[in-house]
């Protein structure tokens, strides 16, 4: 079986992990955590980095830190992971969604303004599958209506938008270091910001809101979202190779695009937009209308031939949990609905070999030609 993702862990990972074990520093108090926070913030062009347990809780803390609360509306793409909408709902705020662009699969920025009301507090911009969302219109609207901007950059570690690092836009940005992301800590995440007050708030929130001078007396409710030194040790080793990893991802993506170019019934990812070159977090494909079956069927056929794959995201406005909460009732977003049904991604991990890519491409061809 060719797995849908396998990470590359053959740099300094073992060495730094051994240092943790030899020194006894395994908790979040260890030195690799600070080192990862500082180097990562530097790489994405931010002043402060706050390491957390994963990319989902990074969003919980980020939203609370910038003041999203009961009754606020937050605009986000419907085509994304539940991690984006869940913290909005948990905060008692209201997720307001827009459809996706049929080619970049990112949120349709020209649908945002019509969704802004007097209760709108923030826009949550999410970069999807390796191409950044068009940030300038979002930042323009945020300035015009005095909105906060949260940037979920989990899928674009090492990517740039018009030459500026993804993760450097808006009030606060979040990342995930899950093993299928461009760098991994097993489980892990990062919040970055230039605002010292927001950074301090995030640090408090991730650490049960312990505050000096007297431990165990609390003015606020936080969480334990801390990252361990073991995770951070992996992260420091992985970050050393970010440029190389981006290069590998682009090579994988370009190779697939060349090998699959002749299959007329498949929509392939864009190699680039006006503002970025794809870094192919995953290599997604969408079945064109002439194909008489959907992504689930295609993935079954691939699996029977030993190829792992995953379906595209399932839109937020169709989620059963949100229907139960009377959110999005009667709303339709045709592009997201279509790509959720007809989109899936091929093995895209960093450990993929050229032979495996050729095998995947030949199998895909045998199914679609
Ligand atoms: C992976 C991902 C997350 C969640 O990260 P975890 O570390 O898995 O919790 C959040 N947002 C986006 C866009 C992601 O791709």
Protein architecture, described:
The strands form three sheets. Strands 1-9-8-5-4-2-3 form a seven-stranded mixed β-sheet, with helices on both faces. Strands 10-11-13-12 form a four-stranded antiparallel β-sheet. A two-stranded antiparallel sheet has the order 6-7. The mean pLDDT is 97. Helix 3 packs parallel to helix 4 (82-90) and helix 8 (242-260) packs parallel to helix 12. The chain folds into two domains: 13-239, Aspartate Aminotransferase, domain 2, CATH 3.40.640; 242-368, Alpha-Beta Complex (Aspartate Aminotransferase, domain 1). It is 37% helix and 15% strand. The protein is globular and about 70 Å long. With 369 residues, it is α/β, with parallel strands linked by helices. The structure holds pyridoxal-5'-phosphate (PLP).
Counting structural domains, the number is 2
Please mark out the parts with pLDDT under 50 across 5 or more consecutive residues, or reply none: none
Under the CATH scheme, which architecture of the largest domain would be assigned? 3-Layer(aba) Sandwich
Instruction: Give the CATH H-level superfamily of the largest domain.
Output: Type I PLP-dependent aspartate aminotransferase-like (Major domain)
> What is the 3D shape?
globular
From the helix content, strand content and strand pairing, which structural class follows?
A: alpha/beta
Gap between N and C termini: 22 Å
Tally the helices: 12
Overall pLDDT score: 97
CA-based gyration radius? 21 Å
